[in-house]
Amino acid sequence: MSTDNNTRRNMGLLVAAQSLGGASPPIIISLGGLVGQQLSSNPTASTLPVSIYQLGLALSTLPAAWLMNRLGRRQAYVLGALLGVVSGVIAAQGIAHSDFVTFCIGTALAGFYAACVQSYRFAATDLVDEPAQQAKAISRVMVGGLIAAIIGPQVVIWTRDALPATPFAGSFYSQAALALLALPLLMGLRLPPPQSRAVAGDARPLKEIARSPQFVVAAAAGVVSYGLMAFLMTAAPMAMVGCGHSVGEAALGIQWHVLAMFAPSFVTGRLIAHFGKRRITALGLIMIAMAGGLALLGLELLHFWGALILLGVGWNFGFIGATALLTECYRPAERAKVQAFNDFLVFGTVAVASFGSGELLHTAGWNGINYGMLPLVAVVLLMLGLQARRQKMVSA
Description:
Layout: H1 3-21, H2 24-39, H3 48-71, H4 73-96, H5 100-118, H6 120-126, H7 134-142, H8 144-159, H9 169-187, H10 206-210, H11 213-242, H12 247-262, H13 265-275, H14 277-295, H15 301-326, H16 335-363, H17 365-395
Helix pairs in contact: 1-6, 1-7, 1-8, 1-9, 2-3, 2-5, 2-8, 2-11, 3-4, 3-5, 3-16, 4-5, 4-9, 6-7, 7-13, 7-15, 8-9, 8-12, 11-12, 11-14, 11-15, 11-16, 11-17, 12-15, 13-14, 13-15, 14-15, 14-17, 16-17
């Protein structure tokens, strides 16, 4: 098989695996808080299953990267999918037995699978040699999320009442089935072996890389883009139901949101190539702020859905742009540790923020959450602007 054919084949498998693996988070996020309300007597603990999922994702980034470095990406991805199967079954059993702790264990285990799915975008960059093509490779794999945006919420709608005695359990059994379907795709990957593309020479210490302005800005953009998106996405279904909208309307809102997250991926790589990584990242952050502004205008279905759609597009531009910025921060020999540390920061922040979302929604309300996000966006926009100015002065 030629190199070009092998690259296309691997890229196609990654897109397909992304479409199945990316369907799990919408199921967990759209139902986790509602199941939490059903199983927990403490209303402030209702988002704990989603928060524990985010924590599991964050804590899994470093061991997942270690396994990829030692065994190769394919073996780590297969293990991740197997844990995805187990996690869905455990979560469903937690619902069936009205056991809040068991349900949380299931969502926590799903975090390792999610950490592997998140790294598919980095696997795509390993398949191309030219730095200019990396943003397009990232964007192409993220297109798989568009299919996931259809699969995940529709699974919720079709299966949430499939087992009448245990509402929502059917959706988590379906989550396990989706991970099972991903296994043969991941087994078919033929990716570069560990360290095969590392250049000779000593890699810089991680502390040195982490202190560089390039890394700080790229990581901050990724943290804020993903963190705010996840925070609002976690709170939105409960806020919608609390405002009198139905569970189905909340699930459809998440579906439109996830569609908006991934649909722009068809053009994001080309936009980055034309306008630059920083401009597209900044545009994404501005759109996230606009989502908060729209949410503050009212509590009708149009306001919720419109804000979730803007939030999704903003995340796409902001997160893919931040990922592309990250590729400027490391040499090939430093790739694995820098990617893992970046994802640990991003998803660790998401987990910390997620733990407070239920309490904040309960105390400050939906409007308080949306007001609170605006200063964070402003800070990162300022950082991007200062970095662009410094680079312009250096090149002058």
